[in-house]
Amino acid sequence: MPLLAAMLLAACGGNEKVLTDEQQEVEDNTASEDVEQSTEEDLTLTKVGEMVDDPEVGTLVLESKRKVNEDIVQGGLTIHLDEVKVITINNMLNDFKDKVELNTGKKPGNELTYMQVSYSFKNTSDDLLSWSGFATAIKEDGEQLDLDNNDIIGNQNPSQIDIQPKATVKDNLIGIPVDKDIKSIRLVSDDVLKDDNEAEDFIVQGEETTISLN
User: Fold this and answer.
1) What digits encode the pLDDT tens for the residues 165-175?
2) pLDDT digits (tens, 9 = 90+) for 68-106
3) How many helices (H) and strands (E) does the chain have?
4) Three-state secondary structure of 36-67
5) Which residues are within 8 A (CB) of 27 and not within 5 positions of it... i.e. 6 or more apart?
């Protein structure tokens, strides 16, 4: 019997997975990445009325959204407006309030609504182009906002980016403070500059476009 018990234990032990320190570290990192990816996916608002808690911001509520799929052609630059969302942040955390105040110059209350516009842009020309994203927003009541000084999301628009010929820059965002019941907004893009400042069309002035939520 003792011999049989020892054999059974040995057989069970042979089925156990023994990991080296390096293998354990890889497994731990993979698990951590899976949790991080899951958290990021959970914070993506896709349905109107959906609500998620962001541990760094507060409670996010999707008020409205719309696929735009419109192009703005500005010389050799084509700007593709992808999607617009209106999001309200409730129960804002103090650290995020401080960040908003730093980026906008205005101290927020416990609730903040903003419009998030996602877009990409492509240099369709054979020239090196320089651009700085969207410069201005005009709300329905006529209030004009300098987007450089009303940066809700903390990292928006390219900062005087050089765009190589035939290159595309994806996944850009701007965040604009708005009212919950907003129906439309006017956006003005910044000027596009050519690398050759002696070219006849060295500067292509910004274009205004209206984004509707209807």
Assistant:
1) 999 999 898 88
2) 999 999 999 999 999 999 999 999 999 989 888 887 788
3) 3, 13
4) HHHHHHHCCCCCCCCEEEECCCEEEEEEEEEE
5) 19
Token pair of 131 as six digits: 């651009």
Strand pairing class (129-131; 192-194)? antiparallel
The C-alpha R_g of the chain, in whole angstroms, comes to 25
CA distances from 19 to 27, 39, 69 (A): 10, 28, 50
Q: Quick check: helix, strand or coil at residue 48?
A: coil
What's the rounded Cα separation, in Å, for the pair 56 and 43? Answer: 11
Q: pTM of the prediction?
A: 0.75
The bridge status of strand 129-131 relative to strand 161-163 is antiparallel
Q: Which of 50, 79, 85 is nearest to 67 (CA)?
A: 85
